[in-house]
Design goal:
The chain is α/β, with parallel strands linked by helices. 52% of the residues lie in helices and 9% in strands. A 6-stranded parallel sheet has the order 3-2-1-4-5-6, sandwiched between helices. It starts with a helix and ends in a 5-residue tail after the last helix. The mean pLDDT is 96.
Length: 360
């Protein structure tokens, strides 16, 4: 028991060290960006959210014209024991099948990533199958979580390890030259875990937090809400302790994505948040370190019912509204185009002086 406690303390110390490296955005760089935007040939603020993104990117990187051409969508994959309760329209076997689809380049996120000039990096953090592929980042901690409706999804130690996996994946990709990241997920049953995380951390009811996920009908949705309520009542997660929430009603891929977000912030890199599951991970990251939030860019508003509430609680404003609810990192991949547009405005648009245009 002492050995387990020592390891847990070591893991917590490592996480605390990384969080300690996250600094506020560079205010002087943001002021320079705002000044530059005011000098471009347009009315002040007329490009709306593109100008906000440009200023945020400068604050994150400390540069007016950062090179963010190397970008990676990190898809964390893990299974959920709560699928035993019949909360999804798809069987758990779909998780490993979709992982192989990501690795062969045939999933929606692969298509949209190619269009955006981004790379997809798939991490097996907890798939309930033994997978092997040259492109797979294998960091399996469990063969899926335990059934949270009957007890904790995982141990506290495993939850900490999962967060650190996300940080370590970002560190390796950063060493390889990547400077912008996005979150993606795969795991049948993960909207159930994400809804439970949302309910606990915001104090909302399971009925408000749960949505249709993979497209379940009214009867199964009602059942899903009851399962979430039972999981929370059974485990009594502590809302003031995000690691406790993760371990009791979370998921391995949710924990891993929280680590991706924290790791990107510690490296002063923007991280684009995908949909509902990624936003649940972002809520965990924000609860662990509020200074990580300014490094996040909310990509889109999902059709999952509680996603808007979740984004609002974090403090993110979505760029895109396309009624999507796929996950995988698809919304984040589309958002890359808007980020590139904001960067091109900064680097390519003429100023009033250079273009000989009179100011208003």
């Amino acid at each position: 028991m002492t050995g387990n406690l020592d390891k847990e303390l070591q893991l917590h110390s490592r996480l605390t060290e990384v969080i300690g490296n996250i600094e506020p955005l560079d205010e002087s760089a943001m002021l320079r960006a705002e000044h530059h935007l005011l000098n471009l040939t347009k009315p002040p603020g007329s490009l709306g959210k593109l100008e906000d993104i440009a200023t945020q990117i400068s604050g994150i990187t400390g540069e007016l014209y950062p090179d963010l051409s190397r970008k990676a969508i990190i898809v964390m994959a893990g299974d959920h024991g709560v699928c035993e309760e019949g909360v999804s329209a798809f069987p758990a076997e779909v998780t490993p099948q979709m992982v192989l689809n990501f690795l062969s380049g045939g999933a929606a996120v692969n298509v949209l990533a190619r269009q955006a000039g981004a790379d997809v990096r798939c991490v097996d953090i907890g798939v309930n199958a033994d997978l092997s592929h040259p492109q797979l980042i294998s960091r399996k901690l469990m063969h899926g979580t335990n059934n949270m409706a009957q007890g904790p999804a995982m141990t506290r130690e495993t939850a900490l390890e999962a967060v650190l996996v996300g940080i370590e994946v970002v560190d390796q990709l950063w060493q390889d030259g990547y400077r912008m990241f996005a979150t993606g997920d795969m795991g049948i049953g993960n909207t159930t875990a994400s809804s439970a995380v949302l309910s606990v951390l915001t104090g909302g009811s399971p009925e408000e937090a749960a949505g249709r996920g993979t497209g379940i009908n009214d009867e199964r949705l009602k059942h899903k809400m009851a399962v979430i309520r039972r999981a929370i009542e059974t485990n009594q997660p502590d809302a003031s302790d995000p690691i406790d929430v993760l371990s009791k009603v979370g998921g391995l891929e949710i924990a891993g994505l929280a680590g991706v977000i924290i790791g990107a912030a510690a490296r002063r890199c923007p991280v684009v948040i995908d949909g509902f599951i990624s936003s649940a991970a972002a809520l965990i990251a924000a609860s662990l370190c509020k200074d990580s939030v300014p490094y996040m860019i909310g990509s889109h508003l999902s059709n999952e019912r509680a996603h808007g509430q979740l984004l609002q609680h974090i403090g993110l404003s979505p760029v895109i509204h396309l009624s999507m609810r796929l996950g995988e990192g698809t919304g984040a991949a589309l958002c890359f185009h808007f980020i590139e547009a904001a960067q091109r405005i900064m680097s390519e648009m003429a100023t009033f002086d250079s273009a000989g245009v009179s100011r208003g």
